[in-house]
Specification:
The chain is of the alpha+beta class. The chain has 11 helices and 14 strands. The chain binds flavin-adenine dinucleotide (FAD).
Length: 272
Amino acid sequence: MIPAAFDYVRVESVDDAIAKLSSNEDAKLLAGGHSLLPAMKLRLARPSVLIDIGRLQDLSYVREDGDRIAIGALTRHHDVATSEALRSGCPIVADAASSIGDPQVRHVGTIGGSVAHGDPAGDMPSVLLALEATMVARGPNGEREIPATGFFTSLFETALEPNEVLTEIRVPKATEGWSFLKFRRRAIDWALVGVAAIRSNGGARIGLTNMGLTPLRATGVEEALSGGADPASAAERADEGTAPPSDAFGSDEYRRHLVKVLVRRALEEAMA
Ligand code: FAD
């Protein structure tokens, strides 16, 4: 429960963070520390240097930008959950943020940390997949946009380069036809399985939490809906292409059953 030795440096700008990342091969950014520090205590992560970006206030915002909403990577879950712009323009993001952990976690953890950590059990990644959000990363060669659909590459791995900082997440406005369902045993628990559904072109886009090594899209269900299937029969394909974990909270078989039930309920809510 004691992390390996590390150096600590606090930076005052994104450029400074990029420079420090570029000159320290196994450095890690520290945002809220609510995923990284537990991993370090278990020695699953052993960065030699922690680069603290947690006080970069200019990366903490929610702004309307035409038909999209831009969210700074260092925006705390609480500020995402209570943002008026998100509540009225993209309520699924605010709703998912309000379900993360407990108030203490929500006041310290950041949306950028949730996304960059690439945890398949995280709530926000599957919501961003269903929304087809865009991640904005800045590195030594400037800024680039990464679609959410290509962002989560493997277990705790993302398309971010080691010397890039995730600066912003852009979500489309989506006010009608959405559902976010998180099945957990106690109010503060992580999702056993989570489902995010966004109505789209007569069908729906569906993101799944905790059903594989990465957050996933329920492509079988999406295909069935665009072929004219009703929500109940489309939901029967919810576990296609998934590889859910078996752990102390539920078996693979249980999660496969659960995801079909949750997808059906989410579709009924989103398509109503
Ligand atoms: P950190 O822990 O600081 O960083 C996580 C990783 O992302 C690190 O590798 C770091 O280097 C990298 N990183 C951070 N910011 C950036 C950036 N801007 N650019 C590039 N890389 C970056 N999450 C849920 O989704 N649902 C839950 O129900 C939930 N419950 C929780 C309960 C507890 C008790 C705790 C401790 C955590 C819980 N979490 C949950 C996780 C929480 O949401 C974390 O805040 C989040 O996963 C990570 O955000 P952070 O700001 O703390 O990131």
